[in-house]
Every structure is written in structure tokens, then in C-alpha cells.
Write a structure and sequence with these properties.
Layout: E1 2-4, H1 7-14, E2 20-25, H2 31-43, E3 46-51, H3 71-81, E4 85-87, H4 110-113, H5 117-132, E5 136-140, H6 144-154, E6 162-166, H7 186-191, H8 193-205, H9 211-224, E7 229-235, E8 250-258, E9 261-269
Parallel strand pairs: 1-4, 2-3, 2-5, 3-4, 5-6
Antiparallel strand pairs: 7-8, 8-9
Helix pairs in contact: 5-6
The chain binds pantoate.
Length: 270
């Protein structure tokens, strides 16, 4: 596995490859990330993973400084997963970067409390697409809103990258894998599986109760556990508009803070 550390080097090393699948990450890798590499291997021949903790997508009071930096271990995992290249640029990659604006979809759900987050994401992902020129790029469906926004980015004429979504990977107790799970206190780690259990409860009841009741009962359920979801939605999987009734397709999505740790999860009914 070759490590590429600058834009110039990336362009030089990758210029003769036409079948690149990009797996963008911010490091601190877990099995969820490795499943993205595995998905990439099903799709194309040349796997380029990237590791860059992108300051542009963290708000002022967010956890950029404390975001875990575990490069050595990340590289070991990527190599054994079968990544051929790792693009690990320094912060110089941000110099002169084209600032991009995420589409209006970015103002919903996570965008309500993280107003600039998706602008930062599309800015760095746009840059990665410019430098790596991947034919495909793989993104986890846990960040479903990000996946939709990146699909919108890729549809712009500047790019020829097809966006592939990869299923959520869960711990044995159902908690969606996330780099932030390690930051949970032991009590909150015990509570965290309730998030996915509740999404499953909504899924099981979606045909026999109104969406309004499902949401209200679920908010009461979390309240009894001392938790208040930042959002809990049953919405259209393309527009993220709230749905009053279920008619075959829906995204059930949640963001919730357990102590200082903000977790997101979803179930897609398609
Ligand atoms: O999903 C992530 O880890 C990040 O948002 C991404 C896509 C690597 C951009 O920094």
C-alpha cells in the first residue's frame, strides 16, 4: 500500500489509473470504514482511501481538536483490508481550495444544528474528486443526509464520479458503528442501543400507527430515559421532507446526544 501525501504526488502517481474507487475517511477507523473498503473492492480495481480530518466541517464548539487521531493503526487496517493507496494530505490541501455550498437539502436535519457542516463536507469532497478523479466513491449510509448531498455534488458537471452507498455496520447490540462510540461513558454506552431499537420499533409499527403518533411516542420514550432527540423524523428519502403517512418508502432518522456525544442513525425503508 502506497501513501500519497500531496496533491502533486497524487496526480503523478494516479495519472495512469482509470478505474479508481475512492473511500474518503477522517481516520479513526473501525469495521464500518473497513466495510466501505470491502464495498469498494466489489466495484473497482484500484482502491484509494483518504484520511483527512477536515476542519471545515466542524463548527466552532465541535470536537475538531479532540477528534481521535490514530494514523498508525488506521494505516495497518487499510493495508490489511486491501486498499492500494492512501491519500493523507497535510492541511496545505486547504490552500486556495474552491469553497462549495451544499444544496438546500443541507439545511434540514443535521444542518439545523450544524449550519456550515455540509458546506465543509462538499468543499473537501469536491477537492478529493478533483485530485483523485475517482470513477466511483463509497460513502456510508449512516450519514444518509451526507450521502444525498454528495450525490448532488457528483451530479455537477465538474465531476464524473458515481456515488455508491454502503450499508450501516452495527455492533452486536445494534448500535451503529461510529468513531464517536468510544467517547461514550460506560452508562451511556449501555443506553446507546436503545436508539436503534426504537428505530426498529417505528419500522415495525409504521403501517398501523400515524407518523405523528410514532414520533410523539418515541420522543416520550427517550424523555423517560432522560434524552431529547435533536431530531427524529420519518421523511421522504429523496427530499427529506416530513411524511404524514407511510406509502412504501421512508427514511426514519435520528440525531441524539448522549452526554457530550452526538450520535446519528437511520433505517431506510425502500
Ligand atoms: O464521512 C466522513 O468521514 C467525512 O464527512 C468525509 C466524507 C470523509 C469528508 O470529510
Amino acid at each position: 500500500m502506497k501513501i500519497i501525501s500531496s496533491e502533486i504526488q497524487a496526480k503523478e502517481v494516479l495519472k495512469n489509473y482509470t478505474d479508481i474507487v475512492l473511500v474518503p475517511t477522517m481516520g479513526n477507523l473501525h469495521d464500518g470504514h473497513i466495510s466501505l473498503v470491502n464495498k469498494a473492492k466489489e466495484i473497482g480495481k484500484t482502491i484509494v482511501s483518504s484520511i483527512f480530518i477536515n476542519p471545515l466541517q466542524f463548527g466552532v464548539n465541535e470536537d475538531f481538536d479532540s477528534y481521535p487521531r490514530t494514523l498508525e493503526n488506521d494505516l495497518i487496517q487499510l493495508e490489511s483490508a486491501g486498499s492500494h493507496f492512501v491519500f493523507h494530505p497535510s492541511k496545505e490541501i486547504l490552500e486556495g481550495i474552491k469553497n462549495r455550498k451544499a444544496p438546500p437539502l443541507s439545511k434540514k436535519m443535521c444542518g439545523k444544528t450544524r449550519p456550515e457542516h455540509f458546506d465543509g463536507v462538499v468543499t473537501i469532497v469536491g477537492k478529493l474528486f478533483e485530485v483523485i478523479k475517482p470513477q466511483f466513491a463509497v460513502f456510508g449510509l449512516k450519514d444518509y443526509q451526507q450521502f444525498l448531498i454528495i450525490k448532488n455534488l457528483a451530479s455537477l458537471s465538474d465531476f464524473e464520479t458515481e456515488i455508491i452507498g454502503s450499508d450501516i455496520v452495527r455492533e452486536n447490540d445494534g448500535l451503529a458503528m461510529s468513531s464517536r462510540n468510544n467517547l461514550l461513558t460506560s452508562d451511556n454506552r449501555l443506553l446507546a442501543p436503545e436508539i436503534y431499537k426504537r428505530l426498529c420499533w417505528i419500522k415495525e409499527n409504521i403501517s398501523n400507527k400515524s407518523n405523528e403518533i410514532l414520533i410523539k411516542d418515541s420522543i416520550d420514550f427517550f424523555k423517560k430515559k432522560g434524552l431529547v432527540p435533536e431530531y427524529l423524523k420519518i421523511c421522504d428519502p429523496d427530499t427529506l421532507e416530513d411524511l404524514n403517512h407511510f406509502s412504501g418508502r421512508a427514511l426514519i432518522a435520528i440525531a441524539i446526544k448522549l452526554g457530550a456525544v452526538r450520535l446519528i442513525d437511520n433505517i431506510l425503508l425502500d
